[in-house]
What does this fold into?
Amino acid sequence: MYNKGIYEICAGFITAEFFNLVSFKQVNALQTNRTIINTEATPVTVGDWVGDSLPVPVANDMIDRKMFLLKRNNDDFIFFCHPSPASDSPLSFYNEYVYRRNYGIIAFKSKYLTKAKSNEISLSQIYDSDEYYYFR
Amino acid sequence: MSPAYTYSTNFQTLSSKDKTCFIINAIRKDFVTNNSVRNLTIKPFIIFKIFGGKMTRSKEKPSANVFSLNDYCDKSVVPALAEDMKVDISTLRQLMKLPPSTHLIA
It folds into this structure.
């Protein structure tokens, strides 16, 4: 990054994620997708937890590939997304993001989930790992 | 051409694993468009997570094998956004008011 006459060079293992900031009133919590950060989303009701930390929203349809709002604290919004079972990636991560209004993502939590032998992820088959990456 | 993105950087050093991570938000603040179907205002952004990273600062221009974040954003986010919005690249180019010469990966 070139910043005020100074080159800032970051080195390390890099991942990039794409989002679209969109604000609209939802008809229901499923009116979203994997990339949407919706500051007008209704916080989803959590009906269950997998292990100690993975929320399972009360929804009548697919919950993977969907970004849900877990809770809001003033200008900070916590969104979460379960991994897609159809992903070709060998890595599957449950992700939480803290979005701060007018700033961007300020924190995240990712949890690696190993897939069942069928190569599908169902919430009853998730094997927790201890690998958390949690920054704030 | 002025940078299409503005950047904000969080330097994160706290974690249970004593690892370091940088979060860089690349937000295209000058690009707001409407999805014609739902009349929604959409603002795309990218975050970069840099694990185990370190940052150095220099007044000297880095070598050619260091990629520019701005170039990466411009070349990558447009096709991704086009896919997400279900519009073709040329339409998106018009929406974004990009000149024809702007290099896009289509």
Notes: The CA atoms of residues 9 and 55 of chain B lie 11 Å apart. DSSP finds two helices and four strands in chain B. Confidence is low (pLDDT under 50) at residues 11-18, 97-106 of chain B. The helical segments of chain B are 69-85, 89-95.
